[in-house]
Specification:
four-stranded mixed β-sheet, binds zinc ion, mainly alpha
Length: 250
């Protein structure tokens, strides 16, 4: 004779399981709503701070280069001045016109070199000044953002620690319930839930209408839902519809 079979899972059982799965998931959703935008705000601030730190480092490198350039140009001007001094001394002892012309040209050249160096010193000094301002501005901005981050993190940590245990418990329960649902049905459930704005994939019929989108359901379909022999989805929103009595609701 036929072997004793495992208890058959009825459509009603499946619907009940999906409904309880959804309730657990909705509880997790509510915890997330409680945390609100905080996780996103924290992540944004962290990104912004990394960006600011990178920018400050870049400015500081540029500032260092600019300061090096200033001292390099100052040294160049000093060297030229020393050369001019030396040429002037030599001018006192020239033996002919050719030497005189040569020294005069050198002095002229070094004088121009000093002018050029002075001009560059002014330019690089201005750069340094601008960069110093940029660094200071970015640093004070960074300080502000870091304070914002610390505050938001504290807020978020507070909420997370309050709800962490509850959430972990719920996730365990979700896992248990999910293991009871056949993979294809679970996949469909998840897909519907994802596209439903309120995260509800299973809705009750309310006064002959879909409890998700409130569109009227034809009488024959209402009857089928009541009988609960097959899974019926709303033709408008795609949600799975159940009879309130199935889950003990009015
Ligand atoms: Zn609907």
């Amino acid at each position: 004779m036929a072997k004793k079979q495992e208890k058959e899972v009825t459509v009603e059982d499946k619907l009940k399981t999906l409904y309880s799965l959804q309730q657990k998931l909705s509880e997790i959703d509510n915890i997330k709503i409680l945390r609100g935008e905080l996780p996103l705000e924290v992540a944004d601030l962290e990104d912004e701070i990394i960006g600011l730190e990178t920018r400050i480092k870049k400015y500081e490198t540029e500032l260092k280069d600019s300061e090096t350039a200033v001292s390099h140009q100052k040294q160049k001007a000093k060297d030229s001045a020393l050369k001019i001094e030396k040429y002037k001394e030599q001018l006192d002892n020239v033996r002919n016109n050719r030497e005189f012309d040569h020294l005069s040209k050198e002095i002229e050249f070094e004088t121009l070199e000093i002018e050029l160096s002075d001009k560059r010193v002014r330019e690089f000094s201005q750069d340094s000044k601008n960069l110093t301002e940029q660094v200071e501005k970015s640093k004070s901005f960074l300080e502000e953002r870091s304070a914002d981050l610390a505050q938001k993190k504290e807020e978020l940590d507070g909420i997370v620690s309050e709800t962490k245990q509850q959430e972990e418990q719920l996730r365990e329960e979700v896992k248990d319930i999910e293991s009871e649902v056949e993979p294809r049905l679970l996949q469909a459930f998840k897909r519907i839930r994802k596209s439903a704005r309120n995260g509800l994939a299973v809705v009750m019929i309310e006064r002959g209408a879909c409890g998700g989108c409130f569109n009227k359901i034809p009488p024959q379909k209402q009857m089928d839902i009541k009988i609960g022999k097959k899974i019926i989805v709303c033709e408008y929103c795609g949600r799975i519809m159940i009879d309130p009595e199935l889950v003990g609701a009015e």
